[in-house]
From TrEMBL:
<dbReference type="InterPro" id="IPR000253">
    <property type="entry name" value="FHA_dom"/>
</dbReference>
<feature type="compositionally biased region" description="Low complexity">
    <location>
        <begin position="47"/>
        <end position="71"/>
    </location>
</feature>
<protein>
    <submittedName>
        <fullName>Putative Forkhead-associated protein</fullName>
    </submittedName>
</protein>
<feature type="domain" description="FHA">
    <location>
        <begin position="116"/>
        <end position="195"/>
    </location>
</feature>
<feature type="region of interest" description="Disordered">
    <location>
        <begin position="29"/>
        <end position="71"/>
    </location>
</feature>
<dbReference type="Pfam" id="PF00498">
    <property type="entry name" value="FHA"/>
</dbReference>
<dbReference type="InterPro" id="IPR008984">
    <property type="entry name" value="SMAD_FHA_dom_sf"/>
</dbReference>
Amino acid sequence: MRYIKICPKCGHENPEEADLCEVDAEFLGAVPPTSAPDRPPPEPEAESAAAAPPSVAAEASPSAPVDAPPVVVAASDPAPQLSSASGVTTRFEPRPDLILELLESGERYTVRDGWIVGQEHDSRAAHIRLPLSLPGVKHVHRNHCRFVYEADQWRVTAIDQALFGGAFTNPTFVNNDKAAPGATLPLSNGDKLTLSGVTLHVRIL
């Protein structure tokens, strides 16, 4: 036998041990428990295939394969996240111009990266060819020295004349520093460059 407490306010059937109504929280302390009426158990509601979700209807359908493997849909890879280098700024400074000024005449030559300076000759081997009329130019080689811009600085390299079958290499000086054949010396604004007997002032602007 099952006992219940009937709420005097709403008529809800509460369990015997309840002190408050489950519906409206009415106090049930003074309500005596009574025996619950005998009712047949409710019939289970039949769910139609039309009302069932598509996945349930497919499982209940006799046409669906019994042992069909589940379909696994692979999630697409997330879009790559672009990251920027923090605190790193690259600045491209303009390359300064290198100008050589002849001490004897004041004539100026603008030098480009990789250019060669040498004696004037029909072979036109050098990019800048010093005229034969200059005093001391006869000791300047046809390919005397090469100028390069690297590591943010202009530099001069004394070309080793052995590369052209020469027996000796006439000197190249930057101020009082002599460049050995094939050696490179840095240049600064105001330096004095001497190619054998020809002197040029270095201008870096």
